[in-house]
Amino acid sequence: MSYITRLDRAFADAPVLPVGPDARYVFFSDCHRGIGNNNDNFLKNINSYFAALQYYFQYGFCYIEAGDGDELWENRRMSQISEIHDDVFRLLSRFYGCGRLYMLYGNHDIVKRRQQAALPGLPELRFHEGLILKSESAPLELRVAHGHQADLFNSVFWRLARFLVRYLWAPLESFGVLDPTSSAKNNTKKDKLERKYVHYARESGIFLLTGHTHRPMLGSGLSPYFNCGSCVHPRGITCIELCGFRASLIKWHASAEKSRHFGSIYGQCPPTFPLYITREVLGETELTPP
Known about the structure:
Helices cover about 25% and strands about 25% of the residues. The chain is of the alpha/beta class.
């Protein structure tokens, strides 16, 4: 089965959401929420993520998680993850209660496709492989999937990949050894996958939004491929906002603001640098039919 067939299958029975002038969607991917240990790469950005979710809930966005939200290759039990990150799931449940939450599964949480992972506050939430956003006023379609469908090793042979991550690469990560099979840590694999995504979008006449590679990308009519990045970057998280027909690549990160009181070496208070979470727009583009 080709990667095109696997992607087509992901959208065969996908829910369809409307896109219009008043639409507000935010796309996150690859949170990789863990169990709070040294391998939990989500922990370093949890404050930025929590601030972002509060912002998007307050301003009426629909939250869409494009897979790998939870790290279920390195960790066996969803209950451990939900217990460590219970504050995050409480906030996600607020989106769910308002009908503004959609979650896809990726390769690292592919077990969710069988509805085996009960999340607190989300008792009847369905996990989808794909999602379609369509406009009624224009021939415009945005398809959303995690993107592992274009990666043979992480889709068809995901059980082998999970075994290697769980028993080989996860322990070695503590010593700084990177997983060479991971598309998120291998630029050659990223480039190859991105060419596949662009080809699929052009051949299908649609826009495609994925995660999986962890490399944020803002598409256009010439290159109709978007990637919302991840929440495990060293210095912040990225996402994509869709407001009406305008897509924006956003970075949330901690910044320091120097206090007006500088102090001195003569017994006065030293300067202070309060930290705050900031939303930075990295780029914007209008969605027009490719």
